[in-house]
Design goal:
The model has no long low-confidence stretch (mean pLDDT 92). α2 packs parallel to α4 and α3 crosses α5. Helix content is 79%, strand content 0%. The protein is an all-alpha fold and 160 residues long. The chain is extended, with a radius of gyration of 23 Å.
Length: 160
């Protein structure tokens, strides 16, 4: 695969959006925000993962040409969020905090967030397990009775 295929228009546009986002972060704004370091590090980590996967796929010959479009959209969303909250202060800062303020919480409270993510994963696992068990028993019960099957089968087909 040629290097030119790696630098397709979506890939280039996503990096133009990324550069615009970084410029917008360091422009002066009307809202008081915390240090942009955590926000910039998060963006850099996301971009590094994107570049690593793109280069690895390019070397294999299986380049994902739509990944650039997805990342261009992600950078555009972050850019709009930055401009609307930090630079122009068009939204209430309590309801829509600046991205710098949101990402500054991660280094400060990473332990608490990790514990809460563990609790959420546990709740998700219990719900998945309960739903699976209930689905199996309900499916067996409905399958044994033809009248219930004729009632629930169309509903199951629509939901499937």
């Amino acid at each position: 695969m040629k290097l030119r295929e790696l630098f397709n228009p979506a890939f280039v546009f996503s990096h133009v959006m990324l550069a615009t986002l970084y410029v917008a972060i360091f422009l002066p704004g009307s809202a008081k925000v915390k240090s942009p370091v955590a926000f910039c590090v998060a963006i850099a980590v996301i971009e590094a993962l994107f570049l690593c996967t793109q280069v690895a796929n390019w070397r294999k010959g299986a380049l994902n040409r739509h990944a650039g479009e997805v990342f261009a959209f992600l950078w555009a969303v972050l850019l709009v969020w930055e401009v609307v909250t930090s630079k122009l202060k068009l939204l209430n800062s309590v309801v829509f905090p600046a991205p710098e303020n949101v990402f500054a919480v991660f280094p400060a409270n990473w332990h608490e967030m990790l514990v809460n993510a563990g609790y959420s994963t546990g709740i998700l696992f219990v719900g998945f397990l309960a739903g699976t068990v209930a689905g199996i028993f309900f499916g067996l019960f409905v399958g044994w009775y033809p009248r219930l099957k004729s009632f629930f089968f169309p509903i199951a087909r629509v939901l499937a």
